[in-house]
Amino acid sequence: MSTARAKLVIRKQIVRSFKKQQLTLQADAMTFLEDTLEAQNVPPEDLNDTLDNIVSGYVAREGLSLVSRARLEIVLESMQKWTHHLHEKPTRNTLDPHKSQHALSQSTNHSPSQRLYQHSQQRPNPEDLESIDLDSMRDRIHEMEGEQHMGERQQYGENDLFMEETQDGMSQMEGPADDDADDVDITEMLHVIDAFSMPRWRWASDIKTFTRAESSASTNPQESDAQRNGSTRAATTSSTNHVLGQAEEKTAMFRARYHVLLQRIMRNECFAPPVFTGGMEQDRYLKLTPLKALKGRCGERFLMFGMLVQMGDGKYSLEDADDRVELVMDHSQNSAGLFTENCFVLVEGQYTDDNVIIVETIGLPPPELRDETKSEEQLKVIAQEYEDISFVILSDIWLDQPKTFATLRTIFEGYSNSTLPLAFIMCGSFKSQPFLYNGLESGQYRDGFNTLAELISEFPTMATFSYFIFVPGPNDPWGASILPRPKIPDFYTAKIRSLVKRSIFSSNPCRIKYCDQEIVIFREDILNRLLRNCIVPPCGDVVIQKQLVRTIIDGAHLCPLPLTTRQVSWAHDHALRVYPIPDALILADKFEAYNFKYQNCHCMNPGSFPTSDYSWMVYYPASKRSDICQIPKPVR
Description:
Helix content is 32%, strand content 19%. It is built from 19 helices and 26 strands. A six-stranded mixed beta sheet has the order 5-19-20-22-24-23. The protein has a six-stranded mixed beta sheet with strand order 18-16-15-14-25-26. 36% of the residues are buried. Mean pLDDT is 78; it is low at 80-95, 100-182 and 216-241. It comes from Linnemannia hyalina.
């Protein structure tokens, strides 16, 4: 392999390794890491494991998503025996059906459903950090930096396409690559994010960016002391699994929702004031008026943004961060959407002498495309290369019904004889009736998962290489009626976790990170709840499913209902945010199945598995499309 080509392979692997942990390398950090790896003479077969060790050490020590050279140097210096592990020969594993077709063609000892992947079973502990001296390494790096800039054009030549300073501060490669660069284990590109593990971000209006907020729900005294002492690591890992929050978090929850939507509105071109006003009318853009600025301006029309709230006398008001004003909606016209209490809306109307707003129009805030919020070009290319990757989505898997297992057996047999899905997403409820805490139903509930584990284990390839992701539903134990719901307790799922290698029990809601795509999964009968709590009648000329999706995406929240109707944990309300807009949104509802796109988000509902004649949904991330599937009925 030529020197220029080797550099391209190393840089591409660095990008992938850091992207898997949602980390962004600055340009100087990228150059530093490239030169360090070259100076250490890392063998190509050990490159992937070496980078995984470095990334693990960085996450354990720093945790910041933007990786600078200074922080990377600190991590490398503090990783004990780091240079020893650079040359450590890892143990390899084989036989993975999700490997790329190109890598498969290099092997003659495996069938098409048994593709190679590499996995290191021996890695250094990232928590074991001590200082070592790398002064000699730094000297060599400084020499190489000058040599690289002087000879870069001669090294790469005119036929290699190379572009630096991409949108996220990393490098983007195009053109032909070596076989090693295409050797990607696609299963490592899938990560399930539990609702209680999601970091909390808040909008800082003074610096116009999001900053990570420290959790005030932590009761660990060691974490609290570390945070008071300014520990970065404690500040970024202090999120704890507390369903209940402190009193101030209830107010902070609604304030955070408000600021997330407000900053999105103000970036919209319709609300942006003109930079140059010469010869331009000032009414060419939409201007938001804070509620506190209404005083003394009776008879004027205003456009306002805030949250719909109901007062003690039954009247509705609009509330923003500073004030509140009563609304009269007798003759209002509303756009598509389902408007309930605690829903954030744009209101246009006239302010009267009685200090009320005569509402003329009410609507949802404008959405923002995901590509405008976030871009990950490198991982997008990887996702598009694997056109046969699919996710099978089922909802209401009633394990107390014999017909459920008979139908699942037929489905598993079909997929085991064709292309295996990367993941089976199984949403609850896993019981046809609500779980009763009387001590008698625990054994029956556990037996249902044991039977499912035995069924999956009858298909060894599927049980080994496909992910099985379980999301609890309304009838499942634990979590009561508070969102987000924690995962199903381990007591009930021990056997399936032992027999199914890649079984993951997550919260409701949860998220899947696959390459550059974010897939949000929410199991809730949300449509009927919203319809029962609408303040104004829904717009009649839009399909009700599309109004549901528009309400959730435009409002940037999975459950825009009052807390009296659907309780939400104050401390974990950020886990229900839908911002940025995901690539796919799975609203597992007992309503009939549907699938369509809204704002480049593929929205789908698989429907209830037993009540929809045992139909399910299949999602293809490469093309961002889905199909409604059903077992063919026998011909009589």
